[in-house]
């Protein structure tokens, strides 16, 4: 585990993975995932990752654009992965990926990605400092670089669209 008194934390300490089976209450009339249900699960995973990293309560400050790239059908297993990839004084950037799985066929598909900004808060609800991010392993460095590049690409695409 980690040292609660340390001023650093690793990407691995924040890594969170949660899975759900898509049930009828979270589907639309076509038997596919409601976008709001997926966004809810993404927000929870980002909060868990942020809380593990900051060792404090966290709140969602922002969420980047989300594209739903593939449908998730009733009964599919939905896996949401999240990890902190950058920090400020009181904020953390969290990459969140969603995949769907149909065990009967072996189909596994990337369905959504977004970037959340979470802010640590103390018992009074005031912004609290977060540890500095460490990436002591090659795997953590690779995850961080993937997230940083993904966010850069997304921001470039948004700027290109705005100036077109």
UniProtKB/TrEMBL annotation:
It comes from the Archaea. GO terms for molecular function: fatty acyl-CoA hydrolase activity. Its EC number is 3.1.2.20. Coiled coil: none annotated. InterPro entries: Cytosol_ACT (IPR040170), HOTDOG_ACOT (IPR033120), HotDog_dom_sf (IPR029069), Thioestr_dom (IPR006683). Signal peptide: none annotated. CDD domains: BFIT_BACH (cd03442). Residues 12-124 form the HotDog ACOT-type domain. Pfam families: 4HBT (PF03061). Keywords: Hydrolase. It is an enzyme of class 3 (hydrolase). This is Acyl-CoA thioesterase. It comes from Halorubellus litoreus. The lineage of its organism: Archaea, Methanobacteriati, Methanobacteriota, Stenosarchaea group, Halobacteria.
